[in-house]
Amino acid sequence: MTQSPPRSPRDGPIFELRGVSKSFPGVQALSDVSFFLNPGEVHALIGENGAGKSTLIKIMTGIYAPDQGEILLDGQPVQIRNSMEAQTLGIAAIYQEPMVFPDLNVAENIFISHADRGPVVRWGRMYKDAREILDRLDVKLDVRQPARGLTLAAQQAVEIAKAISLDVRVLIMDEPTASLSAHEVAQLFRIVNNLRNQGVAILFIGHRLEEVFQIADRVTVLRDGRWISSAPRADVTTEQVIREMVGRQIDDFFAKTETNRGELLASVRGLTRDGVFSDMNFDVYKGEVLGFAGLVGARRTDVGLALFGINPATSGEIVYEDKSVNIQSPEQAMRLGIAYVTEDRRQLGLVLPMSVVVNVTLPTLPRYLNRLGLVKRSQEAATARTYQEKLSIRTPSLNGEVGKLSGGNQQKVVLSKWLNMEPKLLILDEPTRGIDVRTKAEVHHIINDLAAQGLAIILISSDLPEVLAMSDRVIVMREGRQMGIFPRDEATQETIMTTAMGQVGTANGAGLNGQPATEGGSADSEVPL
User: Fold this and answer.
1) Is the pLDDT of residue 46 over 60?
2) Which residues pair with residue 282 across a beta bridge?
3) How buried is 166 (Cβ within 10 angstroms: 0-12 exposed, 13-18 middle, 19+ buried)?
4) For residue 360, which of 5, 207, 213, 443 sits 20 to 30 Å off, Cα-Cα?
5) Closest residue by Cα to residue 338 from 312, 314, 367
């Protein structure tokens, strides 16, 4: 890949960074980074977690000031001292983690930054305008609904609507598709194309390379805080991009190897949570990865929450280690040896202001207390160092705030804290959401190794290639119903998507009708149509 020319063939860049550097104690986040955005162009910025993408975004939006270098808008140097100045200049950002105000409704969240709408809120106009923006997104949300309780996908939709409501000239999109279904991604890309046709410069940050290649006009790669390359999309390949991102070739993204399925650990029969999901029937075996697939709204996460006791089932039976159990709380689930890695690591998986050490040992804190109830710090630190080595957690200090780590390293800390519990069943909900290709490969290797050691794993993921590659069997859900269970050799993208969309058809004789099989008394036997 080669560097792009200093000016576009049109009227010139709308936005430029020249020689920008930024450091924090012990970390050089950016070093001499230069790139530009042309009007009417989608410019993809890619790199591993920790490559400097988030720091660059925060400099563009005035959250951080660069230590060196300059920022130009329309060819003129500017200083962006805060996010309000960035907004005034026509620069808006959609961040990887949605930042909605939970106690405000959808419309209020969309227009929260609009000081130009006057001191008196005209509620009728605001609701009308909010509905029009959401209609452009083809998003079905009640504009009067409080944001509290919205799914991640719905929160992301509100964030996108908020950005679109502004008169943006430069739109930064940081992992905007991480929580969206394939259908919603297609809708978003149609909106992106409309904005591009209107002359908006779009900086698109993503880890899903197939989406990057679908939407981008140009691609820039960062590695270790440094600019590596920029080139038109047509001049780059996936292999080149990966090699430049990680500094080496990754031949195998998914590390799943064949393992011998162990003993039956748990059987779920008729599991139901009224109004959420119903009649779930499946078995979980030691040493097996059981995948859960489906579109957004399939209620896969709700099944995981029920198994962990966060939102208990209202009926049905769970037989765990040959005993019928009624799981009503996470504490009870943990005593049984069940661990749950949430999809929202920042809000629900970690205590961000606390250190890596504290986060790793938090679920098992009693084992680190002495007779006086004081924490044995050296033992805590030793445990954290063990998982730092096992999972390759990259951090300047184990005593540093976990909130300052990259997304991939935060995810490894979440995994560490639950593995330290020595679970028998590990529920992984979107374990690679928002992390780069190398860290994703590392997480897949960890999953593979855990299964080989006899751990039972439930993998819930909206990344269909991940589910297919990592799972021994795949359960497909649609709108709270179990549509079928497919063994690895019958689980194809076509089969899973057809089933997830509720289409009638055959898929190698597998059970598309969603009915539990009766053959041999197993709910996991496939039922042909």
Assistant:
1) yes
2) 268
3) middle
4) 207
5) 312
- Kindly state the tokens that stand for 458: 């439930």
CA angle 363, 431, 173 (to 5 degrees): 120
Structure pTM?
A: 0.61
**Percent of the chain residues topping a pLDDT of 70:** 88
Tokens, residue 23: 């450091």
* Beta-bridge partner residues of 271: 280
What count of other Cβ atoms lies within 10 Å of the Cβ of residue 16? 20
Residues 74 and 15: their CA atoms lie apart, in Å, by 6
Token duo for residue 113: 């930054």
- Helix or strand or coil: residue 186? helix
Decide the pairing of beta strands 42-46 and 218-223.
parallel
- Cα 238 to Cα 243: distance, rounded to the nearest angstrom: 9
Q: How confident is the model at residue 181 (pLDDT cuts 50, 70, 90)?
A: low
End-to-end CA distance of the chain: 51
Residue 514 has pLDDT above 90, yes or no: no
284, 289, 253, 288: which is closest to 467 by C-alpha? 289
- Report the alpha-carbon distance of residue 413 to residue 342 in Å, rounded: 12
Alpha-carbon separation of residue 266 from 42, 329, 337, 392 (angstroms): 48, 17, 12, 31
